[in-house]
Amino acid sequence: MEEFKVQTAKHPVPNSSxxxxxxxxxxxxxxxxxxxASNGTSDGGAGCKTPVxxxxxxxAFRRFAIHGDTRATGKEMxxxxxxxxxxxxxxxxxxxxxxxxxxxxxxxxxxKSGRTITYxxxxxxxVELARKRFKDKxxxxxxxxxxxxxxxxxxxxxxxxxxxxSPTVSRxxxxxxxxxxxxxxxxxxxxxxxxxxxVEMVDTSGYVPGYKHAGSYEKKVQKxxxxxx
Length: 229
Prior knowledge:
Helices cover about 40% and strands about 5% of the residues. By secondary structure, the chain is mainly α. Helix 5 crosses helix 6.
């Protein structure tokens, strides 16, 4: 009988670094989850991907990223929507942070030849603005305050602007001031008469035009129908 040698699989030896607290592991796992969530998937094993629930901050990023652009995928945001996000979410206060500051930070974090920013660059930009907005807080606390201002938010859609009628338009659309043939096209309530207002209709009733009791004679002389025997 031949002897079979059992060869155990060799695994890479982990770094011989000291054990870290559980809180640091949680932070690292959360950072990895946010990084993979930007693409909507996570590596669940060799050659497979599983969907990952995105955070409220990334959800707001995607909502503003696709605003006004039907071809946008939600993975990148242009400068116009970035400015709108900062304005709608109250990041711009007009004092410590202005629209100019927002544009400068956008140009700083984006690629040199690019016109959009990714979700990771978006978070970098928020950290930059948080330092200017909350100077009395640490970088982490300031960033969390800005995140809370954006989480779950959506673009504000302005209402439809109402047209204000000028005196000239009001005069041209007031049927009570029409004269001539134009006046004949509308009744006393301002409602159009239709064909009767456009074509001269011949009255063959035998009554004088405008007679209030037109048709009363026919009603008097008309005999009631006789009942069958």
